[in-house]
């Protein structure tokens, strides 16, 4: 079983890179299931539309996760209840539209894959206790019981919170990845109980930028330049950043994890 997980898609640059490379990646690597974080996929880098979500699915993405920008487009709240393949953080306030986790099938319909979307509590929008919610979800998404494999996307700001959730899920999830900071970390590994892990898998977008936003304008904002405008995405050549996890079909745990960095300045 091979699972592809890609980081936050950033605006038009990220979408273009996905459009040009995803199908080839899936075919070349014999990917059985694919997850992408789409919360920055809109043209302005904030939120996701139904049209964009539909395009991702048509390209071969099986599940879209998200984070703090999930409600930045008004239409998202209107279609997320119907589109089960689009997840919002499970620890958002009770009664929020959509779901924070689900069970899906691999591309060949042979395996059940659980996908859990969580968001950190520190330096993020107000949410319920992420560790409490994570513990509750583990009673419903059980490896080799309710699902054959499972993926956790933890959308958070700080590394310690991401690492703690990784160790919490070690041995009970196939893989745990961090998203949100848009910069891939160098700690790609399999934890001691068999869970693949990376603190942040980066973004799909233009890295000749400030976390995906136009670098000149971002510098002006840091200098409090009166000519600075609202942040907007950089539209240079995009990089696809993520991981591929090869999992054991008997245990549901990882046996190999590889970084995926394709295109753009990050790969040069």
Descriptive account of the structure:
The protein has 268 residues and is an alpha/beta fold. The chain has a single domain, classed as Purple Acid Phosphatase, chain A, domain 2 (4-Layer Sandwich). The chain is built from six helices and 13 strands. The protein has helices spanning 11-28, 50-59, 74-79, 130-137, 159-169, 215-222; strands at 2-6, 8-9, 33-37, 63-65, 101-105, 112-119, 149-155, 175-179, 189-190, 196-198, 203-204, 240-247, 254-262. Strands 5-6-7-8-10-9 form a six-stranded mixed sheet, covered by helices on one side. A five-stranded mixed sheet has the order 4-3-1-12-13. Strand 7, helix 5 and strand 8 form a beta-alpha-beta unit.
Quick gist of this model?
With 268 residues, the protein is of the alpha/beta class. It has helices spanning 11-28, 50-59, 74-79, 130-137, 159-169, 215-222, and strands at 2-6, 8-9, 33-37, 63-65, 101-105, 112-119, 149-155, 175-179, 189-190, 196-198, 203-204, 240-247, 254-262. The chain is 23% helix and 24% strand.
* Stretches with pLDDT under 50, minimum 5 residues: none
| Alpha-beta classification | alpha/beta
Percent of residues in helices comes to 10-25%
For the largest beta-sheet, the strand count, sense and barrel status come to: 6 strands, mixed
Q: Which fold name fills CATH's third level, the topology?
A: Purple Acid Phosphatase, chain A, domain 2
Largest beta sheet: what is the strand line-up? 5-6-7-8-10-9
Q: CATH-wise, what's the superfamily?
A: Metallo-dependent phosphatases
Mean pLDDT: 96
Compute the gyration radius: what is it? 17 Å
Rough outline? globular
CATH architecture: 4-Layer Sandwich
Could you give the order of the helices and strands?
A: EEHEHEHEEHEHEEEEHEE
Q: Indicate how many domains the architecture comprises.
A: 1
Span between termini:
30 Å
The CATH class name reads Alpha Beta
Number of helices: 6
Secondary structure tally: strands: 13
Strand content: 15-25%
